[in-house]
Design goal:
403 residues; alpha/beta; Aspartate Aminotransferase, domain 1; Aspartate Aminotransferase, domain 2; 4-stranded mixed β-sheet; 38% helix
């Protein structure tokens, strides 16, 4: 067997892998500036919530086109705070897409409210506005659009449904910092928008997130709730501008972000435009190199939308292949390519099958999307050669298994 045929043969069947070393699905991009700011914070004598956390919240709000921003310890915390200040109470209903991470449903259930699941658009994989409207009931207290992979949900259509009825929007933009609709940044339109700064996100603090809003009263209440319901910022109590005295206005939570982690985020913001531009370039290269594979659907971008490219998620057209998604992922791994899946629909998890009572088959668009979904590596540390390797592996596997 010559070297060409060995290379074209699947690694799982004795062929040569596309890469000599493994390409991980995601690696955070931490530069010298982030390290410098963290060291400055460690040496400052103040390492919990302080001016760096305030700076991060303010600058994220500015990037998102919002008036106010609060840095917190996770996007889950931001969603929880957003739902609280929007008036969600036990027994209320919150409409969310089933095609999302479980945090959306968890925060609603943990408040004693009920997640009302709906299906998604087949092209963007974001929540279907028509499905949202059909799910409205007298108990609907909020709607939670989700920006899947960095593609903004159809916020205009959802606002047209919600605003005349006085229903607030708590947007899960965990993937979508830097995204926009018609040049309006994600974060500027919803009542409250939650961003994630988890290790794999476009901007990271390791663990962390932010809630942004245009409403000062909602912001002030979220800020208080994020630190036990205190009447004033904790860090100001220990400066020459603060006082030892505080009151607890209501029962709150421990959701504040430390200055150590916030310093990483501030450093990331200084490189954010550069990192986003590289993500866009790599996504365009993926589009080009995968464009001649009819068995693979590439992610689409709605006209007028700016994609944040947190994920590059393809969809296998399984009816054209003699392989399922799980086996395809195993083949990628044998070729030294990492990958992931986003997301297992909420209603397919055992807990939510029991707690919500949705049957398999009730959300066909989400279930079809999930069956073929694979997220390919996409992060600032990748090179164009890395993308070429990923696409070569996809070509190789599809060629072997196409019908």
């Amino acid at each position: 067997m010559n070297s060409t045929s060995v290379f074209n043969q699947l690694a799982s069947q004795g062929g040569t892998p596309v890469r000599d070393s493994f390409l991980p699905f995601a690696i955070p991009s931490i530069g010298a500036r982030e390290k410098e700011l963290v060291l400055e914070t460690l040496e400052s004598g103040w390492i919990t919530t302080g001016f760096r956390a305030q700076e991060l919240g303010d600058r994220v709000a500015e990037l998102a086109g919002a008036r106010y921003g609060l840095a917190v310890n996770s996007a889950t915390a931001a969603l929880h705070l957003g739902l609280i200040v929007c008036g969600v109470r036990p027994g209320d209903e919150v409409i969310i897409p089933t095609y999302t991470f479980v945090a959306c449903a968890n925060v609603i259930e943990n408040m004693g409210a009920r997640p009302v699941l709906v299906d998604i658009e087949p092209d963007t994989l974001c929540v279907s506005p028509q499905a949202v409207e059909a799910a409205l009931s007298p108990r609907t207290r909020a709607i939670m659009p989700v920006d899947i992979g960095g593609h903004p949900a159809d916020i205009d259509a959802i606002k047209a449904i919600a605003l005349p009825r006085g229903i607030p929007l708590v947007e899960d933009a965990a993937h979508a910092l830097g995204a926009a609709t018609s040049d309006r940044p994600v974060g500027s339109q919803a009542t409250v928008t939650a961003f994630s700064f988890y290790a794999t996100k476009n901007l990271t603090t390791g663990e962390g997130g932010a809630a942004v809003t245009n409403d000062e009263d909602l912001y002030e209440r979220m800020r208080s709730l994020s630190l036990h319901g205190m009447s004033r910022d904790a860090w100001r109590r220990h400066t020459d501008k603060g006082s030892w005295y505080y009151e607890i206005n209501e029962s709150g939570y421990k959701y504040n972000l430390s200055d150590v982690l916030a310093a990483i985020g501030v450093g990331q913001l200084e490189r954010f435009a550069e990192m986003q531009a590289w993500r866009c370039k790599l996504a365009a290269l993926y589009d080009y190199l995968l464009g001649d594979i009819p068995e693979v659907r590439r992610p689409m971008v709605r006209p007028g939308a700016t994609h944040a490219w947190h994920l590059y998620a393809i969809a296998l057209k399984l009816e054209r292949l003699m392989i399922d998604r799980a086996s395809f992922i195993r083949e990628l791994k044998m070729e030294n390519i990492g990958s992931s899946v986003h997301f297992i629909p909420i209603h397919l998890h055992s807990h939510f099958r029991t707690s919500l009572g949705y049957a398999e088959g009730i959300f066909p668009v989400a279930e079809h999307a999930y069956a073929g979904a694979i997220s390919l590596p996409l992060y600032p540390g990748m090179t164009e050669r890395d993308v070429s390797d990923v696409c070569a592996a996809v070509h190789k596997i599809v060629t072997h298994y196409r019908r």
